[in-house]
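In response to a reviewer's request, we include the raw inputs and outputs for one of the modeled complexes. The two entities were modeled together in a single run.
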Amino acid sequence: MNSMSILAETSRAERWRERRVFAWVQRHRVAAAAVTLSLLPGIVPHPALAINILIYGLFATGYNLLFGYTGLLSLGHAALFGAGAYACGIAIASGGLPWFAAILAGIVLAVAVGGIIGALAIRTRGVYFGMVTLALAQCLYFICYQWVSLTGGESGLRGVSVQAVSLGSLRVSLIDPYQKYYFLLVLVIVALAVFSRILESPFGAVIEAIRENENRARASGYDLRWIKWISFVLSSAFCGLAGALNAIHLGIVSIDTLFYTTSGTVVMMTLLGGMGTFFGPFIGAALFLSLEDVTASWTTHWQLIAGLVFIACVRFFPKGVWGSALAMVRR
Amino acid sequence: MGEIPLDILALQILTGIALGCIFVLVATGLTLIFGLLNVVNFAHGAFYAAGAYLGVFAFGYTGSFWLSLFIVPLGMAAVGMVTERVLLRPIYGRGMSYPLLLTFGVGYVLVELIRILFGTDGLPFSSPPELRGSILLGDIAFPLYRLFVMAFTAALLTSLWFLIEKTPFGLIIRAGARDAEIVKVLGIDTSKVWLLIFALGTAVAGIAGFLAAPMRGVIPEMGVTVLIEAFVITVVGGMGSLPGAVIAGLLLGIVVSLTSYFAADFSNIVMFAIMAIVLLVRPQGLLGRPEAAR
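The model returned the following structure tokens for the whole complex.
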């Protein structure tokens, strides 16, 4: 056996091992995500970044259900994130509701907003879907901008303070960043478990069928509008949860949450990590936010860098980081 | 609401038409590019803002509004050509989402570049001296500059119509919009046509931005609102229909202008309400073909 074939042999064995690791991760994806995310605060430089990765990762995951799995390019997901944040924030600041009821309020309003935007947007297809979602989301932005008595208008919603949460005898302080992180982590893992279950269900198979070939899915007897709408609403629920968690995390809700750049950010995160993959959105969020964290220390023109990364991603890296890794292993 | 003075109503309608002209110009460029290249140009708003800044800069440099009005389309066409050649060309044929996302990124970069070069606060700019003041139309005094915007838009749209309907180049454009593959097989260098169309659309966006500058102000984010307004117009007017864009643009301009006078709180929202109604009643838009929407 010459050296070349030995090399080939080892690389094949390596690839085989890699493939098994990937297969294991894919099979136990929620557990794998839980383990990785629980180690995150030890990896990133400061806990605030870890919390942001958690929240935006969930936001991008919810977005990915529509963009990556159903194949619908929405450019208005800021509306759902913002609706969740504002409903949760108003419930706490003005309504004095406990945290779990406020989070629920966030999800409910996001689902309601998503139901309306989705019902209008699915009447169009392709790029018009993107235009309509963008326009309707911007409409919500203007409504919240002008409804100062309820939302605080331009200066944002203040006074969303949750000092601590109690679960039976367990008391978690939300002032301590690490306790806050693990509190949010529990909620995010529950959401991810639900998300994973949706993907495994027959519904999960149908939305992927729509993404792959719409006409064929229609010919198979599925009511496309109904399924697209359900997908939009489910996606809204996850994004609303992420928004609600963000309101609790920050203690304020800024009007920028609803601005179109938030929609752009979530598209970019999903694309960067890998659309239509389970881990992609979290990886994308982690990369995007870390890059923002690093560049913020030496320039205020973050948007320039973000735009260039966006262009580079689309141009050279359409599958994203995790998507490319998967493609390499599967080859 | 009581008595509405007729002259105020007429003034608001005229103002609305002037605003609608800007909408029409932006939407026309967008529709033109989309019709041929199948690219939804998300950088269109940024090109509009860049046109305004280029115009203000050229005005400061040359001191002549008319010369600036000539420089803006040339400069913006160059920007458009570079964008098309370097960034868009390599990703043709990869579906509609990728060019859309790419131009989204281009928009981010352009707006931030404007902020770096000219600051975040916006620039002061008023209409040129020879177009200041107003003229009397019956009982109402109407700003001369807005009348000029209407006339200029009308002239520009007429020449565009002539270009598309009456020239050999227009024949290629119309054929290309219907079936680009066949046009290519017939021996026409479509890549050059695409380049020119993108440059033309960008130039029109730049002119719109410069024309709007004295009316709507010059700030780096000026393109964001206008891009979304142009999307609403494209959806309302009918996807890919130029006459639809003209009608919807003027209509929405008038509606926005009237609401901002009678119910200012709703002026930002009325447009989206109209879009929602159109989508419910006629998803393909006013003049769109049904198959385009589905």
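As requested, we also summarize the result in words. Residues 6-286 of chain B form a domain with the ABC transporter involved in vitamin B12 uptake, BtuC fold (CATH 1.10.3470). The CA atoms of residues 164 and 171 of chain B lie 7 Å apart.
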